[in-house]
Amino acid sequence: MSCVAMEEERVKKVVFVTVGTTCFDALVKSVDSQNVRDELWKRGYTDLLIQMGRGCYIPSKISEEACSLNVDFFTFSPSIADYLRSASLVISHAGSGSIFETLRLGKPLIVVVNEDLMDNHQSELAEELAERKHLFCATPQTLHQTIEAMDSSSLIPYQPGDAMRVAMEINKFLGFPAE
Questions:
Q1: Are 45 and 88 in contact (CB under 8 A)?
Q2: In the prediction, which pLDDT does 115 show?
Q3: What is the domain extent for residue 51?
Q4: pLDDT tens for residues 78-94?
Q5: Distance between CA 74 and CA 82 in Å, rounded?
Q6: Where along the sequence do coiled-coil regions lie (predicted)?
């Protein structure tokens, strides 16, 4: 079967990559690598959309392979909510906003930790949520292996906590009447 026929048969499955407002060229380069693109294609993904933030590295829209992902990119958007909603897979930096917004939508998520950051508290969050099986965790160097090994059915949906009890305790401590 030709690549054109394969592409026409495929259901559109978008991988959305976000680095937030930072510069995380290592992540953009990693998803732009041929082995990551090939692995995503093998898993049935059709499109790769990269939000590249303040980075300098420009991903290639052209692939070396005949059968390949459709690739596009942009720097910033007022909101990435629509991109997250339409994604079949999200690959994100370890920013808590991006992580929790994706988890609330129930999307499979690979969080890529930026090891170049000093005192990287973000990696602690990503590793804890990966340990709880809410997401997959990788580095730019291990992204290909993470995609290759991931099984989205093994993920446990994230259930946001109920902050009402905490608010009631704070109100009680401050002397506000109970409702």
A1: yes
A2: 83
A3: 3-174
A4: 999 999 999 999 999 99
A5: 14
A6: none
